[in-house]
Design a protein that fits this description.
The complex is a heterodimer of chains A (687) and B (364).
Chain A lengths: L1 E3 H7 L6 H11 L3 E7 L2 E6 L1 H6 L1 H4 L2 H12 L12 E6 H4 L1 E4 L4 E10 L8 H9 L7 H13 L4 E4 L9 E6 L5 E3 L7 E3 L5 E5 L2 E5 L3 E2 L12 E8 L1 H11 L4 H8 L6 H15 L3 E4 L2 E3 L9 E3 L1 H8 L5 H10 L3 E2 L7 E4 L10 H12 L20 H15 L3 E2 L5 E2 L1 H6 L20 E2 L3 H12 L5 E14 L2 E14 L5 H17 L5 E4 L2 H6 L4 E11 L2 E9 L1 H6 L6 E7 H8 L14 E10 L4 H12 L3 E10 L2 H6 L1 E10 L8 H16 L4 E3 L1
Parallel strand pairs in A: 4-15, 5-8, 20-23
Antiparallel strand pairs in A: 1-3, 2-3, 6-14, 6-15, 6-16, 7-14, 8-11, 9-10, 11-12, 12-13, 17-19, 18-19, 21-22, 23-24, 24-28, 25-26, 26-27, 27-28, 29-31, 29-32, 30-31
Helix pairs in contact in A: 1-5, 2-5, 7-8, 8-11, 9-10, 13-14, 22-24
Chain B lengths: L1 H17 L3 H12 L5 H8 L5 H40 L18 H15 L3 E2 L5 E3 H4 L19 E6 L22 E4 L4 H10 L4 E10 L11 E11 L4 H16 L5 E6 L4 E10 L16 E10 L1 H7 L7 E8 H9 L12 H4 L3
Parallel strand pairs in B: 1-5
Antiparallel strand pairs in B: 2-4, 3-4, 5-6, 6-10, 7-8, 8-9, 9-10
Helix pairs in contact in B: 1-2, 1-4, 2-4, 5-10, 7-9
Classes of the chains: A alpha+beta (687), B alpha+beta (364).
């Protein structure tokens, strides 16, 4: 909000130069966001957000001048009010005011006659322009000027265009469906709701209370008699109406933040005085003032020791009291360590003791508060087990050559239809910023797939991972499932080696967390669960016992094409919670074998469709307890074998006993048993 | 015979020295010391034929010569072995300036890197890392934070609301002997949290004071995006509540935090400000990281950078979580985290953070 430096100087002659004044305000009151030279004047642009809470005292030049005087000391030169009323014209004879709604706390009005509507004086116009308001005529300009001076919005009606024989103004709730033509260049017809407050004459609405006047009673060049309104409206009501109609004005901003009803008569008198002086106005005797319920002023206790405790330093008691007094508070005698403090009516924001402590702290100077480390009581600081686990996952994947990526939490129709995800399962934004960011991601994995495809434009090989959040609707409310997605791709490759590369990463990762007994489920049920996205011959669920913890697979040809990927994309996804559950069992030491192990190799030629797992399970099942381990070390298929539909698998068989050194004869016996079992399948054994 | 010994000595010296290989050296050994025909062996064998007085003298000399030849052979053998070793080494020499074989190296996201530093600093100061959901209710995001419905302060947060959704998240702590907190059903409307302050509320609801937490996480704002604004970004908030936590304590903790993070003494300053959930409230500036306070282009000549909003927790917030504001007090702060990371690495555009672009990510 813009304030004129010269205007402030007129009210507070001791004001320091603009830069200095801005600095005082910024460090003791509200931030000055900008300064600008306008002609010979300078505007100070104050942070509207912070000012909002102080709309009651600081939305006018008087308030800012008062603030500066409190901070820096010295007196204010407030304009004296000299209202010369015409004893022959009685306001109460000319106008009646009725307030029919509890949402108008006060309605004050004055009547002026003999008005000449012409341009306002140059100094007034200049100040308005400096503050960003366009001059119109003396009447409108005066109302605006007084608002900028005091913070109290005013409105002027053309008295002679009020309806009814006996002129009457009624402040009431609107009737649903009533309409009003607003005044000004941006005039529009608005349809009112019962929650709106209108200012009406007996015929109907003549203004939208606290927000904007109506066209019908607008001041024109021929206007002779006027009514000036200074009222006080309920903040919430004004805010709701203003939001609904998307109608924000200088007045509505002040009312929705709440201003003091005590201000109305002062502002009215100031306006009347100016209009008498500059528009030949004659001021009718008396102010019409409907003020049903005065708010009682409540004392707030101020305890110097509590202030010291909250600030962490002691402000001398006399200094604190003096600051509160300079702010206009009535501070009475201390009883039981507490000063009863009654804030001035314009400081509606001061409601609790902490508010008073803030006043003392900021005027005294926040920079004077020392820095003191707190004592640490109770509790051991920690990160959750899940966070620690995610950190470890990230570190290990980085070690395995993968780069962490963060991706957007939003998605849209286009992506959903690409991956054929039904939109009703997703959370939709009520107010999205763009169609492709209109929903929350339900399958983070698809974000990573797209990112791999995009990166393949710049890199031959891509290895990324990330912790994805999957937002889904559940009967119990929103779920934010976390998963780790690992993806790799290489341009121009057929995906086969990439699958095994990722599989070895998965194995290494799981084993590094002590999960070694996981297996890959490529059964029909598992395949079916991933048929929507995966290559049917290159997908498996990763399980521990019968608990599925994740999946690994190659993206289907259809989706690979759809995301315009330059390479096959292989990916794995694990549910963080499920993974965490598997590693939570503690690791325990196992004794190191005392007796030497014996390694024998066996090569098996099998039909192409026999899986490595099938052969290995025959080996494991017939090896007995002396076969400590077996592992596939060679997977071979030459051209001739391909033609015959065969492949060769070679295994290391590791024999070891926990209680003795094995003899050749013992090993040979077991080895023969294994070889025989394989031969029984009609598979060829090559030793 | 003496002459003979002298001749052997001279020949042995020359020929052993000339032996080019270990094989040749062995031949020389046999030539001089060989058990059958070695030149010296032959002499020693003849000793017995000499008269006793000469035998002792010559014998002594011959034995001395044998030791000397042995020594010569050993020295030469060692020299030959050394040089053959050296030639092998020489042949095996590699070009150490050639680049090594690099294992694929991954990269952590810059957010993760700085986040870990921040978490470690606060863990050392006794703060626990707390988390909460990103989909929140209006109650936790606003009402409980002293931002009632229809209050103009709500304008400070441009909010993403979720379509016709109501929460079934039931976890409000009921305060004994008080009215149920939710009187307004609309407080159950779902939204994307605009700050991580709801985590503070949830944490206080379930933990007794003293409380010291930081809550990092993704938050959402309905804003136009540009190089310094995104509709989603990371935020870190902090909360310390105890019997006597003060503004002085806040200053020290934050000064320490920035100093540790930037690895040098950083100054901070407070300016009065307004946030509904604190009283008093302030903005926190930090001395400029690039000029140290003298004024430069980074800080627009001010010497200071605006870093966070903060304040002393409002009594209404304590009431909402069931704490007694007469018994506890504390500070809270919140800062945009992406900005801090951008500052640390001189990243010009916030949108890079969630771009997934490896050309960006591989730099960290």
């Amino acid at each position: 909000m813009k304030f004129s430096y010269r205007w402030l100087k007129a009210l507070y002659p001791k004001i320091p130069p603009p830069q200095k004044a801005a600095k005082l305000l910024t460090f003791h009151a509200f931030q000055v966001e900008g300064m600008e030279k306008v002609g010979t004047d300078t505007t100070l642009d104050l942070d509207q957000q912070v000012l909002g809470v102080r709309a009651s005292d600081a939305s006018g030049h008087l308030g800012i001048a008062r603030e500066l005087a409190v901070i820096r000391g010295g007196g204010l030169k407030t304009p004296p009010v000299r209202v010369k009323e015409d004893p022959k014209i009685l306001a109460q004879d000319l106008l009646r005011v009725r307030v029919e709604t509890e949402y108008v706390a006060r309605y004050s009005a004055r009547v002026l006659t003999n008005i000449t509507v012409w341009p306002s004086p140059k100094w007034m116009q200049e100040r308005l322009i400096t503050c960003g308001i366009r001059p119109i005529n003396i009447v409108v300009d005066t109302t605006n000027y007084i608002m900028l001076e005091t913070g109290q919005p005013l409105h002027a009606f053309d008295y002679d265009r009020l309806g009814g024989a006996q002129k009457e103004i009624i402040a009431r709730q609107a009737k649903k469906g009533e309409t009003l033509e607003t005044l000004g260049d941006d005039s529009q017809s608005i349809t009112l709701a019962a929650t709106d407050i209108v200012i009406a004459d007996p015929r109907g609405p003549i203004g939208l209370g606290g927000i904007k006047g109506g066209k019908g009673s607008e001041i024109r060049s021929g206007t002779k008699r006027i009514v000036i309104e200074a009222a006080n409206f309920d903040p919430t009501t004004i805010r709701l109406t203003s939001q609904r109609l998307r109608l924000r004005t200088d007045a509505s901003w002040r009312f929705e933040h709440g201003i003091a009803p005590e201000m109305t008569t002062y502002a009215l008198d100031r306006a009347a005085e100016l209009l008498a002086k500059h528009a030949h106005g004659r001021i009718a005797k008396g102010t019409i003032d409907v003020y049903p319920r005065k708010e009682p002023r409540r004392a707030i206790p101020f305890s110097p020791s509590r202030a010291a405790s909250l600030m962490g330093t002691l402000v001398p008691e006399a200094t604190a009291v003096s600051i509160l007094k300079r702010l206009g508070c009535a501070v009475t005698k201390k009883t039981q360590g507490l000063y009863p403090v009654i804030p001035p009516s314009h400081r509606r924001d001061l409601a609790i003791e902490e508010d008073l402590i803030e006043e003392v702290a900021r005027i005294w100077g926040l920079e004077k508060i020392p820095a003191v480390l707190p004592a640490i009581h109770g509790g051991v600081p920690k990160k959750s087990g899940r966070r620690v686990f995610e950190d470890a996952l990230k570190d290990r994947l980085v070690g395995l050559g993968f780069t962490e990526s963060h991706l957007s939490s939003f998605t849209g129709e286009r992506t959903l239809s690409l991956f054929r995800i039904p939109p009703q399962a997703l959370y939709h934004l009520e107010n999205p910023t763009s169609p492709e960011m209109a929903m929350l991601v339900s399958h983070a994995v698809f974000q990573y797939i797209r990112s791999v495809a995009e990166n393949l434009h710049h890199f031959d090989a891509v290895r990324i991972f990330g912790i994805g959040r999957n937002f889904t609707k559940t009967p119990a409310g929103p779920a934010e499932r976390r998963s780790i997605v690992i993806a790799l791709a290489e341009r121009g490759k057929d995906g086969r080696e990439e699958f095994y590369a990722l599989k070895s990463v998965v194995d290494a990762l799981l084993e590094s967390f002590g999960i070694a007994d996981h297996w890959y489920d490529d059964g029909p049920e598992a395949l079916k669960r991933h048929s929507s996205w995966a290559h049917p011959g290159r997908v498996a669920e990763v399980a521990v016992d019968d608990r599925m913890i994740g999946v690994i697979g190659e993206l289907s040809a259809e989706f690979t094409l759809a995301v315009k990927s330059r390479g096959r994309i292989v990916l794995a996804e694990f549910d963080i919670e499920k993974l965490l559950a598997e590693i939570e069992s503690e690791q325990e030491f196992r004794p190191i074998g005392k007796y030497p192990s014996v390694v024998r190799d066996i090569a098996v030629v099998v039909p192409e469709d026999i899986r490595a797992d099938d052969v290995e399970s025959i080996i494991e099942n017939t090896g007995g307890e002396l076969l400590a381990d077996s592992d596939l070390f060679d997977y071979f298929q030459d051209k001739a074998m391909t033609e015959r539909g065969e492949k060769s698998l070679a295994f290391h068989l590791i024999f070891q006993s926990p209680d003795r050194t094995l003899t050749d004869a013992e090993v040979n016996r077991v080895f023969k048993k294994v070889a025989d079992a394989i031969k029984a399948q009609n598979w060829e054994v090559r030793e | 015979m003496q002459d003979e010994l002298k001749r052997i000595e001279v020949t042995a010296e020359a020929e052993i020295k000339n032996a080019a290989t270990l094989d040749e050296l062995e031949k020389r050994r046999i030539q001089f010391l060989g058990r059958e025909k070695g030149a010296l062996t032959v002499i020693l064998r003849q000793l017995k034929d000499l008269p006793p007085e000469e035998r002792g003298k010559i014998g002594e000399k011959a034995n001395g010569l044998r030791e000397r030849i042995k020594q010569l052979l050993d020295d030469r053998a060692a020299a030959l072995r050394r040089s053959s070793f050296e030639s092998v080494l020489h042949r095996e020499r590699i070009d150490v300036t050639r680049p090594g074989h690099r294992p694929a190296r991954g990269h952590l996201h810059p957010i993760t890197k700085v986040l870990r530093e921040v978490e470690d600093i606060f863990l050392r100061m006794g703060f626990t890392v707390a988390e909460g959901p990103e989909i929140e209710t209006e109650y936790y995001n606003f009402d409980a934070l002293n931002i009632p419905q229809n209050h103009p302060a709500r304008d400070m947060w441009d909010t993403f609301w979720l379509k016709n959704s109501k929460s079934q998240i039931p976890n409000h702590k009921q305060i004994p002997n008080s009215k149920p907190q939710i009187t307004n059903r609309t407080s159950e409307r779902l939204l994307l949290r605009t700050h991580t302050s709801p985590v503070q509320i949830r944490y206080m609801e379930t933990h007794n004071p003293p409380v010291r937490i930081i809550s990092p996480g993704i938050v959402y704002r309905h804003e136009a995006t540009d190089a310094s604004h995104d509709i989603e970004f990371w935020q870190i908030e902090g909360l310390a509540v105890d019997r006597d936590i003060s503004i002085a304590n806040f200053k020290a903790v934050i000064e320490r935090f920035f100093s540790e993070l930037f690895g040098k003494k950083m100054a901070i300053r407070l300016r009065p400000s307004y946030f509904p959930f604190v009283e008093p409230g302030f903005e926190v500036d930090m001395s400029c990281t690039s000029c140290g306070g003298k004024g430069c282009t980074v800080c627009q000549q001010s010497g200071w950078l605006e870093m966070m909003g903060a304040g002393m927790v409002h009594p209404a917030v304590f009431k909402a979580v069931g704490y007694n504001p007469e018994e506890v007090q504390g500070f809270a702060f919140g800062m945009g985290f992406d900005r801090l990371v951008m500052m640390k690495y001189k990243i010009p555009d916030i949108r890079l953070m969630r771009s997934g672009d490896l050309r960006f990510l591989k730099q960290f």
